[in-house]
């Protein structure tokens, strides 16, 4: 079995070690830049210059508003091995990794932690993005199963590694997407076993390749000589949903599953740009399934790193890989309709120094019409930001990039965005669009390489613009407004909604923006979603040491922000060593579903069952004691 770099290393650190950026940057004048940024930051969220740029739309100072829109008292940071919600709210477990979806499945076995066969009939691991689809009074919950926690799912092995083919297949089956009908039972949501909607999509489910890359030579493999049918999806992180009722699962760190049986093989420059190399992340899939061996099947990785469209109401449907939306480490897919009905999808590439993207469909959405293939054809853009709070979407075409075809741009999208000079970002995670105005937010989670190292393509990562701090370990949320409120416009204005930091120990830019204080501080914003009332929910995937630079922040958490005032308040704290990710609502909006991913990823949690139980990724339902709506 291939040897992973480390037991507890993140995907990002694995990539960094396995495939370091090409050269060190001779970075100049960090101090001076940061000092000027500090003035910029401490002038509050409206940021001096940006207030002029944004004019009357700039944030109203907190003190100028009579009353906060938040109806709860802030939850203090904590490091407890449970979920904490404000007084007046309650939570319950809806489902967790390993719960069977059918009555002929097997209840979770904490000794074996399941088999390949049991996992195929059960909820996958590491739930992430999710969406709920109401259908004739029924509730179909769809959620990504990003990856498996090796030390937990293989906790029955001394090595904490897959040791035979069944172990490997258990891992493959723990990935992908779960579709499950949920029902209320005694006031709590739970899975409806044997519902005709229940489905597991895994690393082995056939998927149609659509869009520009379909049939291209780079997509052809020995098993699929036409390049039209890929097998499986994995590392599905954030999600999207379309107005025509489909679910979008976004393939993120797809590279960590490929390895080479010949150690001396030198991966191509294109493979290196995507982090595909000779070592996998410890999954050992190539030992059971040869297509993961890049020395034998070098084009197989080109078939992953896409947005996958799934019809949640038809369990027999073939998911579709939408290559027109580009290939990179997709975080989520935030879809809005332009005024004329064209579909606009905002997309982040979550890697240090990679880019922010926008897709615009060729055709228009038609209410009640056939919209099934709107994501098959359109134009892809990458974002360029200026220090003057302006921005531009740069189209990625053969003419602008010098690449040979749209197919090549769809497969090697990072190279295309580098070619047009897009802005290298601090790891774009979720993008969220305001429900009632043209204003879009992106979480830039952190980037320790900012101002220090280029990205994997050699693009510089200077301090400035929407990435205002060197060695950015806290993250920030950037927002922009397209010109004339038109999502089709290629011009926009931007500012920073919040710059995370620790004002208890820093006095400079690392203290964060004015809407961060010792009571609500957090690090590494990741999940972002607006509720129907226009409040922005912020989920974190950060350092939970509660020490040093992160002292006072406690466990990962969920906060809520008011886009009008900049006010941010902590709503929920997760259990130990978890990340909070994934958010959706019941049809009546009285329950908010929230994902608790990888509790105890380093061995220090027994969430949700307590005692000495095996920690399990969980979806919880949160509701108000008074039965009112949750946003
Ligand atoms: Fe899977 Fe970028 O988070
Ligand atoms: Ca994420
Ligand atoms: Ca993250
Ligand atoms: Ca995660």
Descriptive overview:
Residues 447-473, 599-631 are annotated as: Disordered. This is PhoX family phosphatase. InterPro entries: PhoX, TAT_signal. This protein has 631 residues and is an alpha+beta fold. It has helices spanning 11-18, 30-42, 49-54, 116-120, 150-153, 165-174, 269-273, 285-288, 398-401, 406-411, 413-419; strands at 89-96, 127-135, 138-145, 176-185, 188-191, 199-201, 206-210, 229-231, 236-241, 247-251, 307-310, 320-322, 330-337, 342-349, 356-364, 378-385, 390-395, 428-433, 440-444, 476-482, 491-499, 525-530, 536-540, 557-561, 568-573, 579-585, 591-597, 618-624. The strands form 5 sheets. Strands 13-14-15-16-17-21-20-19-18 form a 9-stranded antiparallel sheet. Strands 8-7-12-11-10-9 form a 6-stranded mixed sheet, with no helix packed on it. The longest helix is centred in the N-terminal third of the chain and has 13 residues, at 30-42. The protein starts with 10 loop residues before the first helix and ends in a 7-residue tail after the last strand. The structure holds MU-OXO-diiron and calcium ion (CA) (3 copies).
Q: What are the defining features of this structure?
A:
6-stranded mixed sheet, 11 helices, single chain, alpha+beta, binds calcium ion, 631 residues, 28 strands, disordered N terminus, 9-stranded antiparallel sheet, globular, 28% strand, 11% helix, binds MU-OXO-diiron
Q: What is the structure about, briefly put?
A:
With 631 residues, the chain is α+β, with helices and mostly antiparallel strands.
């Amino acid at each position: 079995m291939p040897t992973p770099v480390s037991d507890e290393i993140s995907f990002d650190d694995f990539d960094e070690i396995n495939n370091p950026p090409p050269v060190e940057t001779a970075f100049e004048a960090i101090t001076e830049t940061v000092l000027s940024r500090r003035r910029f930051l401490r002038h509050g969220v409206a940021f001096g210059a940006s207030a002029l740029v944004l004019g009357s739309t700039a944030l109203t100072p907190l003190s100028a508003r009579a009353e906060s829109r938040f109806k709860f008292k802030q939850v203090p940071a904590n490091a407890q091995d449970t979920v904490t919600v404000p007084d007046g709210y309650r939570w319950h477990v809806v489902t967790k990794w390993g719960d069977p979806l059918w009555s002929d499945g097997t209840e979770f076995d904490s000794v074996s932690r399941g088999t390949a066969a049991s996992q195929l009939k059960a909820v996958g691991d590491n739930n992430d993005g999710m969406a709920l689809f109401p259908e004739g009074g029924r509730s179909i919950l769809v959620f990504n199963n990003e990856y498996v926690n090796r030390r937990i799912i293989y906790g029955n092995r001394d090595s904490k590694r897959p040791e035979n083919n069944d172990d490997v297949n258990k891992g493959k089956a723990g990935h992908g997407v779960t579709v499950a009908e949920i029902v209320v039972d005694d006031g709590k949501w739970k899975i409806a076993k044997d519902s005709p909607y229940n489905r597991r999509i895994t690393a082995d489910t056939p998927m149609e390749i659509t869009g520009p890359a379909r049939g291209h030579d780079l997509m052809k493999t020995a098993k699929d000589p036409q390049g039209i049918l890929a097998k499986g999806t994995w590392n599905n992180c954030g999600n999207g949903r379309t107005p025509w009722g489909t679910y979008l699962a976004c393939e993120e760190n797809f590279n960590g599953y490929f390895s080479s049986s010949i150690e001396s093989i030198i991966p191509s420059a294109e493979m290196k740009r995507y982090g595909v190399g000779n070592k996998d992340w410890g999954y050992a899939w190539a030992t059971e399934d040869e297509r993961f061996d890049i020395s034998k099947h070098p084009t197989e990785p080109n078939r992953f790193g896409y947005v996958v469209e799934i019809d949640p109401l038809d369990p027999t449907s073939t998911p579709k890989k939408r290559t027109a939306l580009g290939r990179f480490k997709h975080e989520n897919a935030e879809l809005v309709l332009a005024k004329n009905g064209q579909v606009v999808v905002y997309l982040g590439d979550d890697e240090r120094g990679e880019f922010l993207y926008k897709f615009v469909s060729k055709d228009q959405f038609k209410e009640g019409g056939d919209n099934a293939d709107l994501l098959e054809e359109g134009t892809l853009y990458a974002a360029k930001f200026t220090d003057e709070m302006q921005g531009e979407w740069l189209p990625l075409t053969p003419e602008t990039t010098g690449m040979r075809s749209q197919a090549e741009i769809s497969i090697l999208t990072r190279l295309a965005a580098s070619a047009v000079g897009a802005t290298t970002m601090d790891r774009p995670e979720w993008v969220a669009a305001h429900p009632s105005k043209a204003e879009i937010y992106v979480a830039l989670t952190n980037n320790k390489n900012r101002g220090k190292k280029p990205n994997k393509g050699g693009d510089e990562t200077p301090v400035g613009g929407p990435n205002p701090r060197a060695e950015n370990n806290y993250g920030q949320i950037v927002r922009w407004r397209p010109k004339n409120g038109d999502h089709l416009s290629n011009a926009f204005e931007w500012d920073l909604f919040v710059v995370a930091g620790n004002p208890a120990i820093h006095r400079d830019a690392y203290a964060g923006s004015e809407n961060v204080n010792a009571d609500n501080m957090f690090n590494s914003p990741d999940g972002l979603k607006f509720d129907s009332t226009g409040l922005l929910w912020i989920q974190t995937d950060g350092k939970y040491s509660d020490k040093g630079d992160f002292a006072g922040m406690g466990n990962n958490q969920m906060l809520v922000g008011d886009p009008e005032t900049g006010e941010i308040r902590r709503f929920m704290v997760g259990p130990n060593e978890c990340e909070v990710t994934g958010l959706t609502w019941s049809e009546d909006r009285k329950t908010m579903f929230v994902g608790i991913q990888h509790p105890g990823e380093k061995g220090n949690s027994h969430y949700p069952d307590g005692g000495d139980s095996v920690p399990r990724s969980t979806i919880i339902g949160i509701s108000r004691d008074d039965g009112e709506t949750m946003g």
